[in-house]
Amino acid sequence: MKIIDILNQDKITLSFEVFPPKLTKNYDDVAFKAKEIAKLHPDFMSVTYGAGGGTSEYTLNIAKEIKEKENVEVMAHLTCVSSSKEHVHNMIHRLKENHIENIMALRGDIPSGGSKFHDYQHASELIKEIKASGDFCIGAACYPEGHPEAGNKDTDIKNLKKKVDAGADFLTTQMFFDNNVFYNFLFRAREAGIDVPIVAGIMPITRGLQVKRARELSNCSMPQRFISMVDKFGDNDEAMKQAGIIYASEQIIDLIASGIKHIHVYSMNKPDVACAIMHNVSEIIR
Ligand code: FAD
């Protein structure tokens, strides 16, 4: 089933994201965790794509296991900036022959020192190619605080519109820890004529160290109550996990109370975290 058809149903959706292993020896463990998360019956799941494409077969295989063994609809991510056109086209073909109908089309981060491939500059080029390659539902990324490379938020929104015009069926946001950032972004996106569904990406922070990584990845602003939480509990793994799950759950409750319908949780291959969040909001998303 196409994810856009799930999003267009008149209901609240909760979806989870997992990432593929870097090494073959970890494949079974990651696949097991992905299937444990799938057993929670989210509306769909997504499987990220390792930068550079070296783990692309794991993305495909985990996506297949989620879909075929757990009967949960799935979206495979695909990046292009560090790959040749040939590799990207081969991957699109592999997804098609394995009946994966949903692709999250991404440029990917430019590796330090630059990419050795120059076939793609932006995700919009990949979106057009996927669109021309078959009947896929295409997701794309968006950045409530602006993508770090965009000069300013207005330019980033104009570039986002290009991705939608190229054929993105829906957008998923980068993580944010302040819902007001998301509400402001949503307003600006709608004002710019971006009318596709926008799925709010929520990252439960369960370890103090994760905050540093989240900041590097997303440049996201952190409200004082979030910083206080990490300062207080960041060195105590169990307390940080509990606090992070509650913080993410509260973000989701506020989003849904404010009329937002689609939530994607960056569950980071952690079934216990996904399960706790599902439990906390189970009545709210009904
Ligand atoms: P683009 O849309 O190409 O944007 C990149 C920059 O170029 C932005 O500054 C934008 O404003 C600008 N731009 C875009 N189009 C144009 C244009 N036509 N003309 C001029 N400027 C333009 N990374 C992975 O490696 N694997 C993953 O699985 C993965 N999944 C992700 C999922 C989500 C929901 C998000 C938010 C990010 C994900 N990323 C992933 C990270 C992503 O690859 C990086 O953020 C990357 O730097 C940008 O990718 P993009 O697809 O947004 O690029």
UniProtKB/TrEMBL annotation:
<dbReference type="GO" id="GO:0035999">
    <property type="term" value="P:tetrahydrofolate interconversion"/>
</dbReference>
<dbReference type="GO" id="GO:0005829">
    <property type="term" value="C:cytosol"/>
</dbReference>
<comment type="pathway">
    <text>One-carbon metabolism; tetrahydrofolate interconversion.</text>
</comment>
<keyword id="KW-0285">Flavoprotein</keyword>
<comment type="pathway">
    <text>Amino-acid biosynthesis; L-methionine biosynthesis via de novo pathway.</text>
</comment>
<dbReference type="GO" id="GO:0106312">
    <property type="term" value="F:methylenetetrahydrofolate reductase (NADH) activity"/>
</dbReference>
<keyword id="KW-0274">FAD</keyword>
<protein>
    <recommendedName>
        <fullName>Methylenetetrahydrofolate reductase</fullName>
        <ecNumber>1.5.1.54</ecNumber>
    </recommendedName>
</protein>
<keyword id="KW-0028">Amino-acid biosynthesis</keyword>
<keyword id="KW-0560">Oxidoreductase</keyword>
<dbReference type="GO" id="GO:0009086">
    <property type="term" value="P:methionine biosynthetic process"/>
</dbReference>
<dbReference type="GO" id="GO:0071949">
    <property type="term" value="F:FAD binding"/>
</dbReference>
<dbReference type="InterPro" id="IPR029041">
    <property type="entry name" value="FAD-linked_oxidoreductase-like"/>
</dbReference>
<comment type="similarity">
    <text>Belongs to the methylenetetrahydrofolate reductase family.</text>
</comment>
<dbReference type="Pfam" id="PF02219">
    <property type="entry name" value="MTHFR"/>
</dbReference>
<dbReference type="InterPro" id="IPR004620">
    <property type="entry name" value="MTHF_reductase_bac"/>
</dbReference>
<dbReference type="InterPro" id="IPR003171">
    <property type="entry name" value="Mehydrof_redctse-like"/>
</dbReference>
<keyword id="KW-0486">Methionine biosynthesis</keyword>
<keyword id="KW-0520">NAD</keyword>
